[in-house]
Amino acid sequence: MTGFKESLGIILSIKNGLIGPSFQSTLLPKCLSKLSPSLAAIYKTALKNIGSKLQLEQYLSGEPNIDKDKILSIYQVKHLETKKMQQVILLFNQFVESIDQVASRKDYIYRGSHLLEKLKTQEATFMGLLLKALIALQIDNFGLAQKHINNLIYSDTEEIIFQIQRHYFKSQEDFKRFYQNLLSATEYIEKKLKNTMLFKLYITHLASLFHHDQLISISQQYAIDWSLNTIRKILKSKNYGLKYPGLWYKILIKKAQIAEVLKFIEDALTPSLISKMHNSLFPIVQDYLTAHTQKRNAIFTRITSLIHSQKNYDNYILLQLLKNNTVKQFVIKKRPALNRTSFQLERQFYRDTMSQGKALEFSLYNLIKLGDHDTSLLWWVVL
Hints:
Layout: H1 4-15, H2 21-32, H3 37-48, H4 53-60, H5 68-97, H6 105-118, H7 126-138, H8 142-154, H9 157-161, H10 172-193, H11 196-209, H12 216-221, H13 228-235, H14 245-252, H15 258-268, H16 271-276, H17 282-285, H18 293-307, H19 312-321, H20 325-334, H21 342-355, H22 360-369, H23 379-382
């Protein structure tokens, strides 16, 4: 019971109400004496089910084996980020749930601009882009809506991980409400968009982003079986083919021969596209570092922008690229501090990300994979 993974499993079970009261009140307390003081303190805190900073301060005042300043700092960082994102989710839910209310165009514009003012820091996130698309559709601005939906299609799973976390939802009901509204937003887009192909691309991408039972209904309701012949025809289209290389790559890799996939990437990844592509395409384009001078130069120019970025997602992408020796040699000339082993860079990145209260589950999972079983990491789960 003293192992890190075992402790994590028990703490998650306590937090999620999966361990019954009898175990919590009898068997578990008897085991605390067999644990190290630091681990026992974590278990005891988990059992307290603390719901506010005041409760935490009162509890810590009677615990001599806990670094009170460190624990309060973790609590404040995690809950500040959580509170901010819970407000974003609430605004999304409220907007979608009232989206069909009859109002004048003027009222729609006012409500939409008022909402976007509240979400200034979220404009480029999945939630921000989706809300902007919905607002544009409300006032029948289809060109603007398509622009935002295009940007949604360019996003990827890892990007979402840095934006939406499970602990942002106070309960399973809150979780279900969000996903139900995601489904409702999708239905609204289908009804208003007047572009069947773009909607098919959007829903195909959405289903690949969110792997959760609540969205099974989406993939079933809008089931789209892209046959290889259909894809080949679409790829010849200027509007829907090479414009979405990331989406088609993920579909083609499961259906076509590798030679056909590589030919598609070769055609799609022009120097012009590389210069303005979404960062999610970097894992694909890095294979062209030595094959084409113009493409190589365009890729290195884009990598330079990643080197100086402060965004967690950009730093994550850079970490993946640093596994390519050609990229690493280029990067360390620009930023010598990155001339460290992959283990050191990844461990530092995931710990730094956790210290900001971001992507906690994702970061903890990757730290465990790296073999980092520091007991103090469990405080981010408990609080």
